[in-house]
Amino acid sequence: EEPLEILVTAGGTREPLDPVRYLGNRSTGKMGHAIADEAARRGHSVVLVTTSGLQTHPAVEVVRVETAMEMREAVDGVSPDVAVMTAAVADFRPRQQAPAKIKKGEHQEGLRLELERTEDILTELAGQRAPHQVLVGFAAETNADLAQARAKRAAKGVDLLVLNDVLEPGAGFESETNRVTLLHRSGQAEPLPLMSKEAVAHQILDRVVQLLATSGPTS
Ligand code: CTP
Predict the structure, then answer these.
(1) Sheet holding 61-64, edge to edge
(2) Using one digit for the tens of pLDDT, what is the confidence trace for 4-36?
(3) Is 87 in the pocket of ligand 1 (CB under 6 A)?
(4) Share of the chain above pLDDT 70, in %
(5) 89 pLDDT above the threshold of 50
(6) Alpha helices per DSSP H over 77-192
(7) 138 ligand 1 Cβ < 6 A
(8) Is the pTM of this model over 0.90?
(9) How far apart are CA 104 and CA 146, in angstroms?
(10) What residue's CA is closest to ligand 1, atom 12?
């Protein structure tokens, strides 16, 4: 396997409300860290942009971030051969971040939050992709609808979309295992059996190498 520059995003972003609170999600970063580790074991050069503090293979270059904006800035500086975007990036963030802790005494009637959209990092990457770059997206769904997923793959402009139904037992957040369906450019949906996240990482990296082989040399 020819050594590649691989970018991986991982973990759930945290969008601050005030200095002590944030809007977050259940992603732990395990799937992304498994991909980064496996890619490093294969001898690739790996940049992992992550919100997670999980241990990684010593050869992985780790960039720790918290918010969608920080993740985007970290990704902006990298032009990889392959990008595998496993992060659960917030779609919305509080429009304003309170400079001091929000006090309940000042909000007796309850608190109304206004949220604004975050930037879509993967769509931005796809918009400026180099000819032979391979992009892999993840979609965590709570109802696996293939027609919707095909539309999402095309809209995101990725070569491979990895679908997982996060409500399925043994799959998704906080799990050691995952059951995914790979959605290819051809529209073909390839369901994989339940396996460890390391084994899923293997499968995904094998597909990436195949995609690069069919799309020609990287340089
Ligand atoms: N993604 C990203 N930046 C965002 C949102 C998502 O890079 N601001 C990436 C994720 O890392 C993942 C894929 O896009 O690879 C998920 O796509 P998307 O469908 O936008 O996320 P969902 O929240 O599942 O979308 P929807 O709300 O439409 O179901």
Answers:
(1) 61-64, 45-50, 5-10, 82-85, 134-141, 160-165, 180-184, 189-191
(2) 999 999 999 999 999 999 999 999 999 999 999
(3) yes
(4) 97
(5) yes
(6) 121-127, 146-156
(7) yes
(8) yes
(9) 44
(10) 138
Q: How far apart (Å, rounded) are the C-alpha atoms in residues 27 and 3?
A: 29
Residues designated as active site = 25
Angle at 120 between CA 115 and CA 122, to 5 degrees: 155
Q: Strands 5-10, 82-85: parallel, antiparallel or unpaired by DSSP?
A: parallel
What sections of 4-140 are H helices per DSSP?
Answer: 30-41, 68-76, 121-127
CA distance 193 to 178: 8
**Separation between Cα atoms, residue 122 and residue 160, nearest integer Å:** 12
The 10s digit of each residue's pLDDT in 121-176 is 999 999 999 988 999 999 987 776 888 899 999 999 999 999 987 777 777 787 88
Q: Which residues contact 108 (CB under 8 A, 6 or more apart)?
A: none
The one-character DSSP state at 12 is: B
Asked whether residue 216 carries a pLDDT value surpassing 70, the answer given is: no
Alpha carbon 120 to chain centroid, angstroms: 11
Residue 96: closest CA among 112, 119, 114: 114
* Mutate which of 75, 85, 167 for ligand 1 pocket (most atoms within 8 A of beta carbon): 85
Instruction: Give yes or no for residue 109 having a pLDDT over 80.
Output: yes
3-state secondary structure (DSSP) of residue 18: strand
What is the rounded average pLDDT of the residues 193-209?
96
Q: How far apart are CA 48 and CA 85, in angstroms?
A: 10
